[in-house]
Amino acid sequence: MTDRVDKIGSGLRIGPMTFPWPRLTIAQSEKLWGYLLIMPFMAFFVVFFLLPYGMVIWLSVVDWHPRGVTEYVGLQNYADVVEMPSAQKSMINSFYYALMVVPISTALSLLTAILIVSLRSSNLRGFFQAAFYLPGVISGLAVAIIWRFVFDFHVGVLNYALSLVKLEPVNWLGSIYAALPSLAGMAIVSSNGVAIIIFCAALLSIPSSLYDAAAVDGAAFWRKHWAITLPLLTPAMLYVIVVSTLGALQVFVPIYVLTRGGPVHSTITVGYYIYNQLIFYANAGTAAAAGLLLLVATVGFTIFQFRRFSQVVEF
What is the Cα–Cα distance from 233 to 20, expressed in whole angstroms? Predict the structure, then answer.
């Protein structure tokens, strides 16, 4: 900053020398405002996403001791996860759970959406859409607690229904054969709301003239949906299947509330295995390695689904 001398009469006045700011073009101004507006989100993204991911990657290659010496161990944590029987069992259970939940849940959601859209009254359609969607806004913890009373061996609703038809009660959550299918059945029944709404929106976007033309040709109800609905619904179906698969592979809350991974690790999933390693055994390195392996598995499975559906999806 330099000084400027102004002569006023017989005196002198010294003031700061000012330089004009360069004028920005409209494109430069828009770019500057764009950066300024995106900075809060980018700060949030870096602090709450990138830094935690970097921390997990770092933990997966070290033997972390919060009050001791942290040593670099390379891929030893990953080897421990791969060789550990409980980790292998958790991965098998996670994929088995997903294979039970995703196909049945998707099929039931699509069937329900078809029946809702086939109603003539828009008020009835709105009522049933809201009725199926509202349970989805309830906390997963609350849903699991409710299902605990449904599955209870002594006073559960399911065993009471079996007693009405003179059948023996079933230990739904205490049997190594029934526990995981029971949790899958809970997920199938209680988590279809979002998928039903997506399918209803996709069904309503299909031109009704296609169904009218098929009716003229003598196509029955199910034939019309097989030849028209399914091919045009593949983008929505792909989205529902991918999202449902990701959610099923990461399941944790029902396992934590209802079974704690038992009996005999029959319901332990990768999510609960990570929780056990971190909370009960204070083994952050193994937990981080298991989480990253789950991430790789889910990304690979998602890529496989996209490539498999790319041949049949009609956009």
Answer: 60
